[in-house]
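User: Okay, second chain of the day. Same drill as before: sequence in, structure tokens out.
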Amino acid sequence: MRIVIIGLGTIGKTILKNLASESHTITIIDDRREKVEELIEKYDVFGVVGNGACMDIQKEANVNEAELVIVVTDSDEVNVFACMVARKLGAKNTIARVRNPDYSKQINEMKDYLGISMLVNPEKDTANEIFNLISLPSIAQVEKFAKGRVLLVGIVAEKGCLLIGESLISLGKKLSNRMLICAVQRGERVFIPSGNFVIQEGDKIHFTSEVNMLGNILAEINLVKSPLKNIMIVGGNKISLYLAEQLSHSKYKVKLIESNKNNAEELAEMLPNVTVVCGNGRSHDVLIEEGIEAMDAFVAVTNIDEENMIASMFASKMKVRKAITQIKSDDLYGMLDELGICNKVSPKHVVANRIARYVRALTNKRGSNVLTLSRLVDNQVEALEFAAKTQQKIYDKPLKELNIKKNCLIACIIRSGQVIIPDGNSRIVRGDNVIVVTTHKNFDDLADVFN
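Assistant: Same drill. Structure tokens below.
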């Protein structure tokens, strides 16, 4: 696919990194020559230096031939205008980053008129991700497949979890509710587990489940937790604004701490159902005084990663049930599991993953059989939903008789709306949707999973 990326800030570079490994023809545009030259050399892409909203620059980048133009500069206005120019030149699809809350609603309503196929808002998308983590207190991550009928759920094997000490074979015999463990992160290592794999305390486990069975599964493995009610947010920015608004409308009791007096006063006006405190959310005394020990969840979303990490670790020490940390640095992001911080969000990764799923959907229209894509375990694992379209020799045979590649697992089969959690006797038939979890990259067809 021909893709043009305009804007090479933090999010633009993350999108480029994700897409450059997928055999697309990519052209980048930015007005910083050194940045363009650096990324051309690093990712073997084409590059144009200049204003990405300028028609002449877009013509030089052959935007007229692009199937997708992604515009993620720091300016909402430039992003919208650049998309309009791209569509005028003949680009088939466009994505614009729009961050300003004042613009978001009206642009979303006008996006067809403006020639925008998809809007991304890193702060709002991240707030949605955090909201999902709070509304599902036992879960560290959840991805949806088969139009929401199948969930790929991430949990932590905490003390008391009945999975600990069990092999996958023994669990298959003991559990009455069907689940399939697809990937396990243990420290820095990632496993696509076989039947003899034994779960240890502290493992981060990803499993597939039919959406209606998730509650039963969590209850059976002793991971049901009561709903979270009292939420503390540290950091007064767009993420905390979107999140606090969403939480307060859903009847959560929210306290937001912001150190800047003017910001705190503005947030208090915009969030009448939220308790806004002007104070230092990094201060031990302030957190204690504001009742951190009585909180069910703690969310650190300041603009400084290290402060978020320390505050979240303190919240965990105070026995807060769920601490959620925003991290921007990839170097620090990879350290969090080692520090016991299991619930983490990164705005650039949230947006990059949304765009990766959109690109896969476009690719599917061009002949690929990938319907849905999600990345797990710091992008080390991919979960893909394939459409079993064309006739294959792997159909109508028990999975145990097929030669599946190493580090690949058939995680779920959806047949005529029925969800099948497979075992060795399960079969794939033409017309199924099949979810595969793998450490391999760039699979484009179900046949790629088999030797």
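The chain has 14 helices and 22 strands.

User: Thanks, on to the next one.
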